[in-house]
Amino acid sequence: MPKIAGVNHRRAIRAFERAGFSIIREGRKHVVMSDGARFLTIPRNNPVNAYTMGGIVTDAGLNVAAFKKLL
């Protein structure tokens, strides 16, 4: 599992929007995004845990380098 440390949840949401995801639902603790085929759940932690962020990026079908370019 890759590690991506120090990512604010708002920056992560903007990066995933650039990758083609859109916000489906926002709660107090999580934001759910989808691109039509995949669903991502992003916690509202600052910063998001490095292992958690790495897993979310993998679930989105991206690699670490591609995600960092979107930030």
Brief sketch in words of this structure:
The protein is α+β, with helices and mostly antiparallel strands.
What does this structure look like?
- By secondary structure, the chain is of the alpha+beta class.
- It has three helices and three strands.
- It has a three-stranded antiparallel sheet with strand order 1-2-3.
- A hairpin with a 4-residue loop joins strand 2 (30-34) and strand 3 (39-43).
- The model has no long low-confidence stretch (mean pLDDT 94).
Give the topology string: H per helix, E per strand: HEEEHH
Radius of gyration: 11 Å
Number of H- or I-type helical stretches: 3
Helix residue percentage: 25-40%
First-to-last CA distance = 19 Å
Low-confidence stretches: none
| Widest sheet: strand ordering | 1-2-3
In what range is the share of β-strand residues? 15-25%
| Major sheet characteristics | 3 strands, antiparallel
Which of globular, elongated, flat, extended, rod-shaped describes the shape? globular
Kindly name the structural category: alpha+beta
Please tally the β strands and state the result.
3
What integer is the average pLDDT?
Answer: 94
Keywords:
single chain; 71 residues; alpha+beta; 3-stranded antiparallel sheet; 3 helices; globular
Topology:
Layout: H1 9-18, E1 22-26, E2 30-34, E3 39-43, H2 50-59, H3 64-70
